[in-house]
Amino acid sequence: MASGDRAAFDMLYEATSAQLHALGVSILKDRPIAEDALEQVYLRIWSEAGRQPESGLSPMAWLLTLTREMALERMRAEGLPGGLTRPDPVEALWLEGASLQALARREGRTAPAMRELLRARLAALRGGRAPQEAAQGAAR
User: Fold this and answer.
1) 95-121 pLDDT tens trace
2) Which range of residues forms the domain containing residue 96?
3) How far apart are CA 70 and CA 123, in angstroms?
4) CATH assignment at residue 58
5) Which residues form the RNA polymerase sigma-70 region domain (predicted)?
Protein backbone atom coordinates (compact mmCIF):
# COMPACT_ATOMS: atom_id res chain seq x y z
CA MET A 1 0.00 0.00 0.00
CA ALA A 2 2.96 2.28 0.54
CA SER A 3 3.31 2.71 -3.22
CA GLY A 4 -0.35 3.67 -3.71
CA ASP A 5 -1.49 0.11 -4.36
CA ARG A 6 -5.26 0.42 -4.69
CA ALA A 7 -5.81 -3.36 -4.54
CA ALA A 8 -3.96 -3.56 -1.21
CA PHE A 9 -6.00 -0.65 0.13
CA ASP A 10 -9.22 -2.35 -0.97
CA MET A 11 -8.15 -5.53 0.83
CA LEU A 12 -7.37 -3.55 3.99
CA TYR A 13 -10.76 -1.85 3.81
CA GLU A 14 -12.57 -5.16 3.31
CA ALA A 15 -10.74 -6.74 6.25
CA THR A 16 -11.16 -3.86 8.73
CA SER A 17 -14.15 -1.69 7.88
CA ALA A 18 -16.76 -3.67 9.84
CA GLN A 19 -14.82 -3.44 13.11
CA LEU A 20 -13.87 0.20 12.62
CA HIS A 21 -17.44 1.11 11.69
CA ALA A 22 -18.80 -0.65 14.78
CA LEU A 23 -16.36 1.27 16.97
CA GLY A 24 -17.31 4.59 15.36
CA VAL A 25 -21.04 3.95 15.79
CA SER A 26 -20.56 2.82 19.39
CA ILE A 27 -18.78 6.08 20.24
CA LEU A 28 -20.81 8.55 18.18
CA LYS A 29 -24.26 6.91 18.45
CA ASP A 30 -25.00 8.40 15.02
CA ARG A 31 -24.51 6.23 11.95
CA PRO A 32 -24.10 9.01 9.31
CA ILE A 33 -21.57 10.91 11.43
CA ALA A 34 -19.74 7.66 12.19
CA GLU A 35 -19.59 6.82 8.48
CA ASP A 36 -18.19 10.27 7.72
CA ALA A 37 -15.59 9.88 10.48
CA LEU A 38 -14.63 6.46 9.11
CA GLU A 39 -14.19 7.96 5.65
CA GLN A 40 -11.76 10.44 7.18
CA VAL A 41 -9.89 7.58 8.87
CA TYR A 42 -9.43 5.75 5.55
CA LEU A 43 -8.38 8.96 3.79
CA ARG A 44 -5.72 9.41 6.46
CA ILE A 45 -4.62 5.78 6.09
CA TRP A 46 -4.31 6.24 2.32
CA SER A 47 -2.38 9.50 2.64
CA GLU A 48 -0.03 8.07 5.28
CA ALA A 49 0.39 4.65 3.68
CA GLY A 50 3.73 3.19 4.61
CA ARG A 51 4.30 5.67 7.42
CA GLN A 52 2.59 3.96 10.35
CA PRO A 53 4.12 5.60 13.42
CA GLU A 54 6.44 3.57 15.60
CA SER A 55 3.90 3.32 18.39
CA GLY A 56 4.47 -0.31 19.23
CA LEU A 57 0.85 -1.03 18.30
CA SER A 58 -0.21 -3.81 15.99
CA PRO A 59 -1.63 -2.54 12.68
CA MET A 60 -5.20 -3.30 13.83
CA ALA A 61 -4.67 -1.58 17.17
CA TRP A 62 -3.32 1.43 15.28
CA LEU A 63 -6.43 1.49 13.05
CA LEU A 64 -8.71 1.20 16.08
CA THR A 65 -6.82 4.03 17.78
CA LEU A 66 -7.16 6.25 14.68
CA THR A 67 -10.87 5.49 14.53
CA ARG A 68 -11.41 6.24 18.21
CA GLU A 69 -9.48 9.52 17.95
CA MET A 70 -11.43 10.59 14.86
CA ALA A 71 -14.76 9.68 16.49
CA LEU A 72 -13.93 11.67 19.62
CA GLU A 73 -12.79 14.59 17.48
CA ARG A 74 -16.09 14.47 15.56
CA MET A 75 -18.02 14.22 18.83
CA ARG A 76 -16.44 17.46 20.01
CA ALA A 77 -16.82 19.18 16.62
CA GLU A 78 -20.50 18.21 16.32
CA GLY A 79 -21.23 19.08 19.95
CA LEU A 80 -22.56 15.59 20.53
CA PRO A 81 -23.30 14.50 24.08
CA GLY A 82 -21.02 11.93 25.53
CA GLY A 83 -17.82 11.61 27.33
CA LEU A 84 -14.66 9.67 27.42
CA THR A 85 -16.26 6.55 28.82
CA ARG A 86 -14.36 3.32 28.77
CA PRO A 87 -15.58 0.88 26.13
CA ASP A 88 -17.60 -2.09 27.24
CA PRO A 89 -15.09 -4.91 27.93
CA VAL A 90 -16.87 -7.42 25.69
CA GLU A 91 -17.15 -4.89 22.89
CA ALA A 92 -13.47 -3.98 23.24
CA LEU A 93 -12.37 -7.63 23.11
CA TRP A 94 -14.52 -8.28 20.05
CA LEU A 95 -13.14 -5.20 18.30
CA GLU A 96 -9.63 -6.47 19.03
CA GLY A 97 -10.50 -9.78 17.37
CA ALA A 98 -10.97 -12.08 20.37
CA SER A 99 -12.57 -15.43 19.58
CA LEU A 100 -16.06 -16.37 20.71
CA GLN A 101 -14.57 -18.91 23.12
CA ALA A 102 -12.21 -16.32 24.64
CA LEU A 103 -15.08 -13.87 25.11
CA ALA A 104 -17.26 -16.56 26.69
CA ARG A 105 -14.49 -17.61 29.11
CA ARG A 106 -13.82 -14.01 30.10
CA GLU A 107 -17.49 -13.31 30.77
CA GLY A 108 -18.22 -16.67 32.43
CA ARG A 109 -20.81 -17.60 29.79
CA THR A 110 -21.36 -20.54 27.51
CA ALA A 111 -20.40 -20.08 23.86
CA PRO A 112 -24.09 -20.10 22.74
CA ALA A 113 -24.99 -17.47 25.37
CA MET A 114 -22.04 -15.34 24.30
CA ARG A 115 -23.05 -15.68 20.64
CA GLU A 116 -26.56 -14.47 21.51
CA LEU A 117 -25.19 -11.52 23.48
CA LEU A 118 -22.92 -10.51 20.58
CA ARG A 119 -25.81 -10.80 18.11
CA ALA A 120 -27.94 -8.54 20.31
CA ARG A 121 -25.15 -5.99 20.59
CA LEU A 122 -24.48 -6.02 16.85
CA ALA A 123 -28.20 -5.60 16.17
CA ALA A 124 -28.19 -2.65 18.56
CA LEU A 125 -25.31 -1.05 16.67
CA ARG A 126 -27.19 -1.49 13.41
CA GLY A 127 -30.36 -0.10 14.95
CA GLY A 128 -28.76 2.82 16.75
CA ARG A 129 -29.39 1.55 20.30
CA ALA A 130 -26.69 1.57 22.91
CA PRO A 131 -24.93 -1.82 23.16
CA GLN A 132 -25.66 -1.89 26.90
CA GLU A 133 -29.43 -1.75 26.19
CA ALA A 134 -29.06 -4.73 23.87
CA ALA A 135 -27.01 -6.63 26.44
CA GLN A 136 -29.72 -6.15 29.04
CA GLY A 137 -32.31 -7.47 26.61
CA ALA A 138 -30.18 -10.51 25.72
CA ALA A 139 -29.51 -11.32 29.38
CA ARG A 140 -33.21 -11.77 30.09
Assistant:
1) 667 777 877 887 888 999 988 888 887
2) 87-140
3) 23
4) 1.10.1740.10
5) 12-78
